[in-house]
Automatic annotation (TrEMBL):
This is YbhB/YbcL family Raf kinase inhibitor-like protein. It holds the Pfam family PBP. It comes from Chitinophaga silvisoli. NCBIfam families: YbhB/YbcL family Raf kinase inhibitor-like protein. PANTHER family: PEBP (PHOSPHATIDYLETHANOLAMINE-BINDING PROTEIN) FAMILY PROTEIN, UNCHARACTERIZED PROTEIN YBCL-RELATED.
Length: 143
C-alpha cells in the first residue's frame, strides 16, 4: 500500500497546522493499493525521536477501507496516545527536528478493542491479520 498526503511530501516538512503550533488537526491521508480482502484498516502515528522513547501520536482501528482519510477526521476507534488521551496529538518536538511516521495496516478482520486501548493491545489484536501495510513520514521542527 502507498500512503501520501496532499499536505506534505514523504520525508518532507509537515505544515504547522498539524502540530501543537497550529490547529493540531490530523493531516489528510490518501491510500493506494488497498489489498483485496481488506475488512478494516488500522493506523499508528509515532515520533521515534522523542526524548523518552517513541511517542504515540495517534492510534486508530476499524477504519473503513477507503482511499482517503479526511483532514481532522475521526476515521475509526481511537486508542490512547502518548499524552494519555484518545484522538490525534499533533507534532510538538521539544527540540530539533523530529520524524513523524504514519503506519497504515490493512486487516482481514474487525478488531474487538475498546476505545482507549493501548498500542500494545492494538498490535496484539492485529497479529496474524495484517494483509498489507504502508507508511508515510513527515518532519517537524519548532521555531
Amino acid at each position: 500500500m502507498k500512503i501520501s498526503s496532499k499536505a506534505f511530501e514523504h520525508e518532507g516538512a509537515m505544515p504547522a497546522k498539524y502540530t501543537c503550533d497550529g490547529d493540531e488537526v490530523s493531516p489528510p491521508l490518501h491510500i493506494e493499493g488497498i489489498p483485496e480482502g481488506t475488512i478494516t484498516m488500522a493506523l499508528i502515528a509515532e515520533d521515534p525521536d522523542a526524548p523518552k522513547g517513541t511517542f504515540d501520536h495517534w492510534l486508530v482501528w476499524n477504519i473503513d477501507p477507503v482511499p482517503d482519510i479526511a483532514e481532522g477526521g475521526r476515521p475509526g476507534i481511537s486508542g490512547k496516545n502518548g499524552a494519555g488521551k484518545t484522538g490525534y496529538h499533533g507534532a510538538c518536538p521539544p527540540n530539533g527536528s523530529h520524524r513523524y511516521f504514519f503506519y497504515l495496516f490493512a486487516l482481514d478482520t474487525d478488531l474487538d478493542l475498546p476505545a482507549g486501548a493501548s498500542r500494545q493491545e492494538l498490535q496484539d489484536a492485529m497479529q496474524g491479520h495484517i494483509i498489507g501495510q504502508g507508511s508515510l513520514m513527515g518532519t517537524y521542527q519548532r521555531n
